[in-house]
Design goal:
Blueprint (H helix, E strand, L loop, with lengths): L2 H19 L2 H14 L3 H26 L3 H8 L3 H32 L3 H15 L5 H27 L3 H9 L6 H12 L3 H11 L8 H31 L9 H39 L6 H5 L1 H18 L4 H25 L3 H4 L6 H29 L1
């Protein structure tokens, strides 16, 4: 692969991961936690950033060295496990993609006043268009890079207008006056949970950037992906912090939109529409691409017609949103299962990192291995809590 193309793919994989994480839930979650924790949320962001990076480096490095996707690594660790993980990830991906389609519709509604169902059709059509062209992978790379950069610039502008107490945020980042373990784990799940942690890694495998000789490129892509997601999170946090520090209380129904509107009036509200649409549409692309990438090595028809299945995934998400809405039971079920996916997949990858039949003579970093198990245990804790809530719901 030419150096120019390699750089494009490395950037594309990073932005695919980052924009997959930066969905409607990401924005709403960040705004709500900022209102609840104020400047102390800075500490939560820093800790979750470091733990997310540990998880992502472990996964991407092992995938690259093994030259296998997540489901194939899982099947090599324990026959059949790859099918279980694929089911969980595809279920979660479909459920959350319904929310992504809804987010794209809301963004268009804010911008142009379009009916939500029609706006959902437009959002779905854009996602379908990406995978209808011959060079879908290259278009996906460019789309996520352009929209990702646009989100940083627009949120950065709103941040500047709110005059947030940056000094206080820096102090709280080191010595928080309020600590929320739940917020830390929730942010980790939102950054590298479910399908998200595999999105960029699978993109690198598809492009042939694999093997120990390419680990430096894999590392750069992983760092950049977490970095982009974190910059957006930090800018959004500071923008909202500036609003709530001035004494405003955000609307619980849509705290992010309210923050943008308070910060910059009608212009701010329109910027929210653009950012929310961009966040949603890139997440639609990322969820569909990654979910289907888990199916294509397990089922031959999917591999033969990959783009067609990705389009079908987006169509299904759009139709469910239009005709059913966001079915609460499905979303609650998928959310609870998603809480269990990261510890299962990360534990599987860590076990695989020590098996020569999977990684050959590669020696995985001891520091990453130990830190990876710490993240696994912490995320398993929240997964168990979410499962208990699910059992209570259906008791």
């Amino acid at each position: 692969m030419k150096e120019k193309n390699t750089i494009s793919v490395v950037l594309g994989a990073a932005f695919l991961m980052a924009t997959s994480a930066i969905g409607p839930g990401f924005m709403t979650q960040t705004a709500q936690f900022t209102q609840d924790l104020k400047a102390s949320f800075a500490f939560v962001i820093i800790v979750s950033l470091l733990m997310s990076l540990v998880a992502q480096l472990n996964v991407w490095r092992v995938l690259a060295v093994s030259k296998m996707r997540g489901q194939d690594v899982a099947n090599a660790v324990l026959p059949g496990l790859g099918y279980v993980i694929t089911f969980l990830i595809c279920l979660g991906g479909l459920a959350f993609n319904i929310g992504n389609i809804g987010g794209a519709a809301l963004g268009l509604n804010v911008l142009f006043g379009i009916d939500l169902k029609l706006a959902a059709c437009i959002g779905g059509a854009i996602g379908i268009l990406v995978f209808s062209v011959k060079s879908a992978s290259k278009l996906m790379d460019k789309l996520t890079q352009i929209l990702g950069a646009s989100m940083i610039l627009l949120i950065g502008y709103v941040t500047f207008t709110t005059h947030p107490p940056v000094g206080q945020a820096l102090k709280e980042a080191v010595m928080p006056s309020t600590l929320s373990i739940m917020a830390i784990i929730t942010l980790i799940g939102g950054t590298v949970g479910g399908y998200i942690i595999f999105s960029g890694g699978h993109r690198l495998i598809d492009a042939g950037i694999v093997g120990e000789e390419n680990l430096s490129k894999v590392n750069k892509s992983a760092f950049l992906g977490i970095g982009v997601a974190s910059i957006v999170r930090i800018f959004l946090f500071l923008a909202v912090l500036g609003v709530v520090s001035a004494g405003s209380t955000l609307d619980k129904g849509n705290p992010a939109a309210d923050a943008f509107k308070i910060a910059a009036g009608t212009v701010g509200y329109k910027i929210f529409g653009i950012v929310f649409f961009a966040a949603a549409i890139t997440s639609v692309v990322g969820a569909a691409y990654t979910s289907v990438s888990f199916l294509k090595t397990l089922f031959a028809p999917v591999k033969a017609k990959e783009n067609l299945f990705i389009i079908g995934f987006i169509v299904a998400s759009t139709l469910i949103f239009i005709f059913i809405g966001r079915p609460a039971t499905l979303l609650i079920l998928a959310g609870s299962l998603n809480g269990l996916i990261l510890p299962v997949t990360l534990a599987t990858i860590l076990i695989a990192s020590k098996k020569t039949k999977i990684v050959g003579n590669y020696k995985h970093s001891t520091i990453l291995f130990v830190l990876g198990w710490i993240v696994t245990l912490l995320t398993a804790y929240i997964g168990i809590l979410s499962l208990k809530q699910l059992l209570k719901l259906f008791a």
